[in-house]
Amino acid sequence: MTSLATAQRALRDPSVRHPLWPPLTAGCPATSTDAVAYPLDIDYAYDRVPDDLFARPAAHGLERWAPLLPPLAAPGLGEGNTPLVPLGEDVWIKDESRNPTWSHKDRLNRVAVSAAVASGARGIVVSSSGNHGAAAAAYAARAGLPCAVFTSASAPPAVASHLRAYGATVLTVPGPAVRPLMRRIVDELGYQSVSSVTDSAHTGHPFGPEGYKTIAYEIALELGRAPAAVHLPTGYGELLFGVTKGFQELARLGVTGSVPRVYAAEPAAAGALTEAMRTGADTARVPVGPTAAYAIDCEISGYRGVVALRASGGTARTVTDAQMGAARAELAARGLWCEISSAAGLASLRAHGPREPEGPVVCVVTSSGYKDTATARESHGPMDLEWAEVKALLARRPTIPDSLVEGS
Amino acid sequence: MTSLATAQRALRDPSVRHPLWPPLTAGCPATSTDAVAYPLDIDYAYDRVPDDLFARPAAHGLERWAPLLPPLAAPGLGEGNTPLVPLGEDVWIKDESRNPTWSHKDRLNRVAVSAAVASGARGIVVSSSGNHGAAAAAYAARAGLPCAVFTSASAPPAVASHLRAYGATVLTVPGPAVRPLMRRIVDELGYQSVSSVTDSAHTGHPFGPEGYKTIAYEIALELGRAPAAVHLPTGYGELLFGVTKGFQELARLGVTGSVPRVYAAEPAAAGALTEAMRTGADTARVPVGPTAAYAIDCEISGYRGVVALRASGGTARTVTDAQMGAARAELAARGLWCEISSAAGLASLRAHGPREPEGPVVCVVTSSGYKDTATARESHGPMDLEWAEVKALLARRPTIPDSLVEGS
């Protein structure tokens, strides 16, 4: 199957279309303003989608969904096809830690690195302290492209090991220096950025979020219907946009009869999309306070988030570190250990509801507990226990560690 | 679909059968000797296996294979259904890091914890410094059972976080004290052990290795045939036994036309199974030297390993830390970051061959790079790079870090 992608389309005005190549990573040249570099997404020849596309089971590798994705020029790692694990009371966890680099970002990077390969980029550049950088580095390595990762000195130690493992060049510079250096790497060395290169708001790669559509496809296939609601950890809103677009496509193609309400869960320490929705703005900028949810503590929102929430009838809400910690502990007690930011979706459901009466609710868990800053910072104390002590320890039934409940 | 399991069967003499319940975790009472507590496996009513069992695609959750597994009384986490990732030249990587706790051990623990639940155990006890403990803790948590994990003070820091996350009681005691304490927990508190409780050799839980059969089922389904050879990291030989048994069952049921040669890859610092094969003994004990492959540095072998190698016509070979490090670097350069012990299978193929001319070769990668002892022990140095330095760094195309190549 080949891609049915036809054009890049301006999100701000879908009647404005650009050729599919090259990827417009700095936003739409026609609809952007001085204040906002508006992003694009990809349009398809929907009338040519094979009738049986959704009749076959899910499979590893985004090529399973090739007609509804941009061309997959970069080789894959068997990404996607993650399980939907029941949590009880018709709440389901889409466990994205089961991807090749153990986060949802593999879906985006299979597509974005493919765009870079197909458009002749000399390398990949990315700014990330965690999942996004690891996924970009893995797909760049598999494609044989060099990869530069700008990361923060405060990135978790295990993530630092992970970034380096794929042979990426890890660059640690002060925050304000990142984007100017990224742009020079793009302009002077011919790399393609899979992170946002604009300053005004989050613009991002036009192809990348298409990869997240496949989360919606897999959920619908597994449930045999669209869920009533989906709760998503939200940073720049690319996951939010992609999942929502996927559900919209399913309804448009007649695969499902409805589109779920999609809820964005942001850390209370930031919350730019919540602010944009509150004020009716296309994007917003907020101060960022301390939070353990470093994967989603973004000071600016992206226009994609607003578009997605308006389309699905959902909204954005914030959750505290304590609420995310409690949700993470709930998941761990059921055998699922996730990064604290990954628990934001469930935290938002538990804190704010609504528990939709009309059907299944899905919370997307984006990443593994191995990515947290607190992970690997404790150690086994030396202990030399006698039987009486062992018995006493087992008698007081252990609880989930405080560090897990409190966040961080 | 319900389980077709009929009995526990003595591996040393398959004509000796015991009822399916209770699980004989201390070995076969009829065939064991003073020197060796011989293990058991599970027999099934093979003549009643549904005709279409292998006609349907793989799916998450071992219930997919319920007829050929013991009863799955413990709830699952969507384990299994991991991808087969091409490495080139008809070599395939079965990526078991894509399981619920990011290792192959989830397959064993879904089955072993189910046996504990079905036989009324009051809790789960396990001895492990890594993957096995995390998986046991996760499945115990999901089943609502307490879990005691004996672990070593030298366990990697990230693994320590992982073990605690599920609420397990982590017990650190000197090595020789572990098994006596485990037996008291079993005898006096009514827990069931999912680790070996015998001193003479590795006996292990009779039900657990059945879970590994599903790796063989998935490989055969994906390739449309049995591979020519399979290379497996080998500690106590439970994975080796389970995968081999799965391929034997496929041939017996007429799903495949042959059984692959199965090769056990042990660290050169240990190599008990290699020693047992060399001397023709049922089990062997060897001194253990220093190695980064802590997941498979076992001083005793299990009779299961000898049984599996004799059945498949394969053999056991050892690989050095340098060879495992090189294999790990080869995988990372292709986008797959694994624990060093996980690269033992590929290391053995590269070091010893044979490259079977007659068909596909599968190397099972058991676990994620996050489990390594060296992981999370490096950090980002503070750096404040100018453009000229960034450009120079990118000009010397980075290589895989030395730590990855050298092992640990």
Automatic annotation (TrEMBL), chains A, B:
Needed co-factor(s): pyridoxal 5'-phosphate
Highest taxon listed in the record's lineage: Bacteria
Molecular-function GO terms, alphabetical: L-serine ammonia-lyase activity; threonine deaminase activity
Keywords, comma-separated and alphabetical: Lyase, Pyridoxal phosphate
Species of the source: Streptomyces showdoensis
SUPFAM superfamilies: Tryptophan synthase beta subunit-like PLP-dependent enzymes
Residue span, Tryptophan synthase beta chain-like PALP domain: 77-366
Protein name: Threonine synthase
Gene Ontology biological process terms from the UniProt entry: isoleucine biosynthetic process; L-serine catabolic process; L-threonine catabolic process
Alphabetized Pfam families for the sequence: PALP
Keyword check for Membrane: no
